[in-house]
């Protein structure tokens, strides 16, 4: 079009563009922006027939883009943010201009609060046709109204429609913030119905796609209309009630103190065991939180430090999921209603976060390294075995809140970014594989852990943080915490359903972010030569950049120096770059303060460049380990969640269907395909040389990481390399029982390696592993390994060893040096029940036939003196207990031999009942198959012969009282000493029951014992893992050749 204009018009249009362009560049305030609308509202230009108005409109659009770019380039200050907010509101108001072209140029949907306020004021004057204009907003922006009511309604409907479409079609604040701002604008507002409709339509849209999350607070996708209205109602009711209390009392101190007292008492009540008290406590806690938040809002502009402290420390008083949801709702309300308190609030909230960390709550809880193992089934383990899950749900909600605040701060507040960076620096440990890890490694916490790491990665990727050593340290910490999760046995999920789906999604998101981190760890991006040289020349140890340090001093933050976590070697000189990469050695010269960067030699610069390259290589190695290990973990979780889906294509389709579409979470199905493709490359394309290098890299990061690496990658080369590393450095891994698998190999034992004595100081392993060291079927036996195995077995309670009596007796086959025999003698003196079970099992294994005629050529000569030694070790009450128990059980067992002569049927049944009636009950006895219960009586009419071709097993019932192994032994000894029935008398009959038992003669049940042992171990393992699988192992004890007792 311009080529058709005359020269003066072209000069005019060019002058307009360059004049306003220079104005916007030089003076980027609201007055410069307003000039653009002066051109659009010029009546002479609007009525021009030559098309000048279209050119002016294009110029304004172009200038607006230039203005936005100029504002983006400015530093993120509060004044800039206020200007942008004002301009956004101006554009919203100008959308109501009668001129359609101006409305088109003003089409923005960025400020929700301004939208609803403008709608409120326009609606209030729509019916007054005498009023031809209205002033909107704090700027008193003038809007000319149309002449007729119908035209005004049409423009108002158009404006309302644009507001409704805004949250759906454009970038908006995080959902929690969007929610809170809308609620704040809800009170007594003409836009109330529109806001409700907007929230409900967004929720229904998400429901149609099946993408609602289980956690309503701070969810990245869900805005629930019911929760919205509930929160709004709570805000209104608490604001009105607290306002009345404050105004009626006159002094706010007593009122606020009563809220404090209510919060503390409710938290204590919620911690009690009574379910009614817990519910009342939680309700009172929630009410107190809302009241305190309302109080802090109502006293504006004053800030009550005590109120702020109690509100931010609330999670420490009641660390529970529902309470945390209420707390975050109150926090969002406070930040929306009191933007002036953002910085003080965040400082207190971050301090509360670190207090939760020091209190070992939630994500920072300690793993129970001394928890009972299902492979050592003592009485405590049998009672307590259940799936253990740290209480991380409150932390997960807290991290979602932090994630939203970080997303907001990234675009408007540099100080807040510094605060969150410091928080992450202190929360993420840089040491990998420590037994005192800051975070629990439990599988159910994976989603929460990687959500926190995702927050950190969002700060690293982009220009949010300046290029500095502090940024490198944060990346090191994130990498370290990600790797630390894999420094334990491979775990299987205890969570399921939606919770497991969310964990998979966040882990896939972190995997994608980590995969994309490759472009951010290049030498020119991670290095900061000028900063390093400058700090080095001034004799400083670099831990954080200057902006962080300045912020520390301003806000009195008590932060650990990054470099203080690692001691510097005394042998390091000023030019030695050895040691940890996060610190730069101090210069020893006293005259370096006068140097400048220009005086640094090229050799020193090359030295720093080489350091940057080594840093990049270090990141690259760790990144490969994280991606590989995370891919295996994702594969495990997805397979566990969908065990019946066989192909990856089907799994990918299922995950895509569950995804949030085009939201920030990303396409989960596509991310899963990428992760599995990477995993296939790791498994199929990694060369032997590469596996060795990866093993050494993992060892350099953490010995624990290297030891558990073969658990996740089935590679013989990897196992061999880890074996070499463990045997070369046994002292570095002797605290890991898993490392024993690599230290004790066939070659090292056969060659009598000089390193074998280290096994004597190794960490205790499971009883199963210890027993395997006494048997040459897996690896050769050795005196040192036998000593270690005996030491391990001695460290477990006697009732745990009782479970493995058959294996312990069999271990005497290879006990040439007598370690097992001595252990058997020792433990027999410690526990009478173990002595009894050992004698019964030895009686069984002395012979090879069921009649006890053919002696076992290996075991008989070994077991006869050992049995005699056990019997000789019993004296006094223990001897009486042994004689009474064996005499009673012999009489019960002989019934089977007596009825064998009678024909099957009623005659055998009658003979069985008669034989039972002849047995005299001896108090203080138990059944061999049930050493936890004391026999009180015999149902002499219950004798029932069982069906058998050549033998005569029978069933009888006994009245027993469950005491437990230890208490039964105490009662048995006490009865032997006093021989008084009052010892075993008990008025409480709740633990008494009738126990059926089968007695067999002439049948070898040793294989049954082994099978039922395995089933019972799996029962404990399944219960600990939280698997809903039912097993009911019964007990079988062989007491002599061909004789057994079955519970």
TrEMBL record:
Q: Which GO terms describe its cellular component?
A: cytoplasm; plasma membrane
Record-linked InterPro entries: ARM-type_fold, Kinase-like_dom_sf, PI3/4_kinase, PI3/4_kinase_cat_dom, PI3/4_kinase_CS, PI3K_accessory_dom, PI3K_accessory_sf, PI4K_N
Domain called PIK helical: residue spans: 691-866
Enzyme kind, highest EC tier: transferase
A biological process term (GO) from this entry: phosphatidylinositol phosphate biosynthetic process
Polar residues: compositionally biased ranges? 584-603
A Pfam family in this protein? Answer: PI3_PI4_kinase
Q: What is its EC number?
A: 2.7.1.67
The record, for SUPFAM superfamilies, names: ARM repeat, Protein kinase-like (PK-like)
Keywords (alphabetical) are: Kinase, Transferase
The terms under GO molecular function for this entry are: 1-phosphatidylinositol 4-kinase activity
Annotated spans, Disordered: 577-603
* Chain ranges passing through the membrane: none
What is the annotated signal peptide range for this record?
A: none
Q: Which residues form the PI3K/PI4K catalytic domain?
A: 969-1047
PANTHER family tied to this protein = PHOSPHATIDYLINOSITOL 4-KINASE ALPHA (PTHR10048:SF15), PHOSPHATIDYLINOSITOL KINASE (PTHR10048)
**Which family, according to the similarity comment?**
Belongs to the PI3/PI4-kinase family. Type III PI4K subfamily.
User: What protein name applies here?
Assistant: 1-phosphatidylinositol 4-kinase
Name the species this protein comes from. Answer: Caligus rogercresseyi
